[in-house]
């Protein structure tokens, strides 16, 4: 059975939840930007934003104070935060689904890239792998480099259908890295990316499709294992 369509207001509510729990932009008790600012920040209409805020207020995550604004609700002390626990269960499920999507698509894409990439594309994939390794060694964020590496491989397949998935791949990579950081898996996530990006890039440079496919598959499986552990 197909998943039901997600209303715009619920999608916006999910973005606000991410800003609170995943991105840590707002803490309990913090006031959210006013309606005009938050709508502009999220790129949504004010009417849809109001509906999203009503959803979250009804769930107890936000407090609407007339004349003062909208605030992140304070947490009860001395017990588990069930709302946050539910968020992380949903987030881990989403990332797991992204990994499953990537297991279907990316190993085969890496194989095709090894066969189809131009020399310039091979050089760019190798450069991006090295750039990520340097970021990891310096302990710096590497989301952009990770996203660029995976989209460069998709581009190098020269398959128009695969390249259409690039925005989804970028979302998948961002969600995986951000979630790994939030659940204390930054070190293993960084080591996984540095090790396997280099391996995939080397196999592509050697025009070894089977090697590139296997290295990419192991990269994604290790990410999935880290999430589950």
Short description:
This protein is mainly alpha-helical and about 230 residues long.
Given as residue ranges, the uncertain stretches (5+ residues, pLDDT < 50) are: none
Helix content: over 70%
Regarding quaternary structure, what we see is single chain
Calculate the mean pLDDT score and round it.
87
Spell the H/E element sequence: HHHEEHHHHHHH
Q: If helices are DSSP runs of H or I spanning 4 or more residues, what is the number of helices?
A: 10
* N-C termini distance: 29 Å
How can the largest sheet be summarized? 2 strands, antiparallel
- Largest beta sheet: strand ordering: 1-2
> Would you report the number of β strands?
2
What is the CA-atom radius of gyration, in angstroms?
Answer: 20 Å
Tertiary shape: elongated
- Helices and strands: which structural class? mainly alpha
Strand fraction: under 5%
